[in-house]
Amino acid sequence: VSSSQKQLYYILKESNIDFYEEGPETKVGPFYVVDCIIPMQQDMKRPLIIEVNGEYWHSLPHVALKDRQKATYVNRHTDYDLMTIDELEMNNYQQVEYKLSELGLKLSKIESKVNDIKISKISESEAMMLYSIFHYSSSIRKGAITYGAFVNDNLVAAISYTYPLRRSSAERLKLELKEVMEISRLARKTNFVCKNFASWFISKTIKMLSDNVKVVISFSDHTYGHSGTVYKAANFKEDGIIGPDYSYVSMNGVYHKKTIWDKSKRMKMSESEYADKHNLLKIYGESKTRWVFLR
To answer: Rounded to an integer, what distance in angstroms lies between the CA atom of residue 254 and that of residue 264?
Structure first.
């Protein structure tokens, strides 16, 4: 099950909408298993099938062909409505809310103002409960300092700071490694709505870091449509462009290259051997913008 599917299931559960997750109960006809089925409820006219598609995987010709064949079968031979949500849409709550409302389903939101949000340090396990659903790379580096944002004791967002993996990240700034930290993870619940939250959360948590930290760096990945707007709003300065890097994809989502490298070493395999065994495709993304904040 992909992280985008997990996001969908979370939103539906939070909205008290009955549904079936991918499995035996979502088999449609003799050939197909779909991501989600929502039976009749609220103001629906027909039961609904939802397919959540990873952008790269479902752009592959053989996968796109299967998608078209499945859609043709559903439209011609069943009584279901069919909705497709891609992974970028899944991160836009308003878009998902609108598409479902068009078919008679109303979602619930967690709405707040920044003054009503509490921030505190959280454990790795607490952060992983959120990252595993709401971050495309559902992992966290060891030794991370992680803060959570809470609305009425409900964890709605998390941010993790780590020391850079490469010593050169500090050396180029003429600093010691312990004086530089990187925003390695930032995620929020899809149905959490709060104006200017991300830049506010970053600014607040930077102030909570040790005084030894002189610079905070981060990256906006153009592959995922991140332009760096939240970093500008948090008073970061643009600090150059990083060339494209690779990751791995499968029908279940995206995997950071280091995740696959670590797994391959544990299995005493090369990275490429591990990727081949698990049907992972190596893809190159777009460039990233590096941002720095001077404390």
So the answer is: 16
Q: Which of 115, 122, 202 is nearest to 155 (CA)?
A: 122
pLDDT digits (tens, 9 = 90+) for 218-241: 999 887 677 899 999 999 999 999
Which pTM does this prediction carry?
0.76
Ordered DSSP codes for 159-178: EEEE--SSTHHHHTTT--GG
Positions of E strands within the chain = 20-21, 27-28, 32-33, 36-38, 48-53, 81-86, 110-111, 118-121, 145-151, 154-162, 180-188, 192-193, 215-221, 237-242, 246-250, 253-256, 281-284, 288-294
- Residue 33 carries which DSSP code? E
**Cβ(70)–Cβ(32) under 8 Å?**
yes
Q: What letter represents residue 253's amino acid?
A: G
- Distance in angstroms (rounded) separating the CA atoms of residues 59 and 148: 35
Those residues of the chain that have pLDDT short of 70 are 136-139, 224, 252-253
CB 276 within 8 A of CB 248: no
